[in-house]
Amino acid sequence: MIQPHSSHPPARPNAAPAGVSQPRAIRSFVRRTGRTTVGQARAFTEVGPQFLLPYSDAPLDFAAVFGRAAPTILEIGFGMGEATAGIAALLPDKNFLCCEVHTPGVGALLKRIDEQALANIRILQHDAVEVIDHMLPPASLDGVHVFFPDPWHKKKHNKRRLIQPPLVAKLAARLKPGGYLHCATDWQPYAEQMLEVLGAEPLLKNAADASNAGYASRPGYRPLTKFENRGIRLGHGVWDVVFARV
């Protein structure tokens, strides 16, 4: 993770919690370098106090932090926040709790929140695994979004992929009955792994029909990002995997 510019608060430490059943190397993020723009830094100062939540080892009171009772969706790793802002604007009746450790990305989403006057997003700049373990009670979420996590292309690095059985079990336990887990990737081997891992979780059931090898059609709420549109023009595939909590 980058060392943030002095004009905004530093990213919080992200040590893996004791007792996590998955390998320490598997986290909800990859350490990346990047540079925070002046606009992003300003958003931390001007918008951050309202929309950034501090990490805590106490369960979150969603109604308190969002100022209302509404269905709550967890998003893990929102990148620069383009899709997140688009979904939040499209679904104003839902709350979005978003985890990302990349400082420029957090600043970018804060800037989008301000520019688009979005009120239904809250951000935790912290490792989502710790957030799930300590801040999210069982059966508290209506949905989970994991869009385009790092595919770790090399076979020897596949174990670092985010979508692994221990994390999926944690997420499934925190979904309400009927809630959903939606993953998307542009790397077919990872899509196949997602289908396998989610399909092996007893609390989840594939929400797609059998006509497309178990993959779902892109739900209308997930917008096509610039990155995804470019990939489609180049002939790259995108796979959506959607499972529901039984």
Describe the protein's architecture and organization.
- The chain has 246 residues and is of the alpha/beta class.
- It has a single domain (57-245), classed as Vaccinia Virus protein VP39 (Rossmann fold), CATH 3.40.50.150.
- Helix content is 33%, strand content 17%.
- It contains 9 helices and 7 strands.
- The protein has helices at 38-46, 48-51, 62-66, 82-90, 103-116, 128-135, 165-174, 188-200, 226-233; strands spanning 72-76, 95-99, 121-124, 141-147, 175-185, 204-206, 239-245.
- Strands 3-2-1-4-5-7-6 form a 7-stranded mixed beta sheet, with helices on both faces.
- β1, α4 (82-90) and β2 (95-99) form a beta-alpha-beta unit.
Essential attributes:
246 residues; alpha/beta; Rossmann fold; 7-stranded mixed beta sheet; 7 strands; 33% helix; disordered N terminus
Helix content: 25-40%
Give the tally of β-strands.
7
The parts where pLDDT drops under 50 for at least 5 residues are 1-26
SS content category = alpha/beta
CATH class: Alpha Beta
The count of helical stretches stands at: 9
Q: What's the helix-strand series?
A: HHHEHEHEHEHEHEHE
The biggest sheet, with number of strands, parallel, antiparallel or mixed sense and barrel status, is:
7 strands, mixed
Q: In percent, how much strand structure appears in the residues?
A: 15-25%
What is the global morphology? globular
Could you report the average pLDDT, rounded to the nearest whole number? Answer: 88
- Which strands sit side by side, in order, in the main sheet? 3-2-1-4-5-7-6
Number of domains: 1
Radius of gyration: 17 Å
The H-level CATH homologous superfamily, spelled out, is Vaccinia Virus protein VP39
> What's the CATH topology name?
Rossmann fold
Amino- and carboxy-terminal Cα gap: 37 Å
CATH second-level architecture: 3-Layer(aba) Sandwich
